């Protein structure tokens, strides 16, 4: 039986990825900070008799990652796939966010991946095969306020993954970057909620409105899970994989502008910004007034 370690598996993309792999016959090691909170996953395991074991692992901790993956390797002997999905987001203007918030995001989204990669590479190299899938985002190519800390972490994941792919291809270990667009997850819902501490920058609210409008026709997290499984099951060495109906359009949208055009457009007044979003994506993200 092939085996997979999935981080951040208690909800969203991680939960559905765990289910997809288990239904395909994998032995799934679903890791998360708080297994007691994974009620939905536990319910699915019981209902479908799935081969999923839940493990407490905090990707922010060297000790936690080393101990958990060492125990998994002791049980399984080998690990065929590692899915680095665990991630967090903090939003606000750079001026107003605390330095500690930037550090939190980078610790989980970037250093967490490094810890997990280092913990499995020895075993994968010894067996002469493996697949490491890092969940990034279109934000790995597109930086907007109020998501500067999140985008910075995903830009870093992209760079790390490129270098890693070069280092481990000689050992027959594949690396893939999954780049979702706006997916219906708790994180996306939080961005759309306008739950900001921002007082100095009006441009942050319109990004919240963009998410809110997009989520009226939500893309389910299962779509990303199926893409991750497809990559693991394939023998493709393709590095980047946009996922979702808006992912490639968002990437092409950004690529169509120079850096200066991108900055200028994001600094325009609200009417011009909303007009271009509607023209390019057919999304009327303007705030609705209620009477």
From TrEMBL:
Q: Name one GO molecular function term.
A: oxidoreductase activity
* Keyword Magnesium among record annotations: no
Keyword Oxidoreductase among record annotations:
yes
- Segments spanning the bilayer are none
Q: What keywords does the record list, in alphabetical order?
A: Oxidoreductase
**Can you tell me which family this protein belongs to?**
Belongs to the short-chain dehydrogenases/reductases (SDR) family.
What is the protein's name according to its record?
Answer: NAD(P)-dependent dehydrogenase, short-chain alcohol dehydrogenase family
Write down the species: Christiangramia echinicola
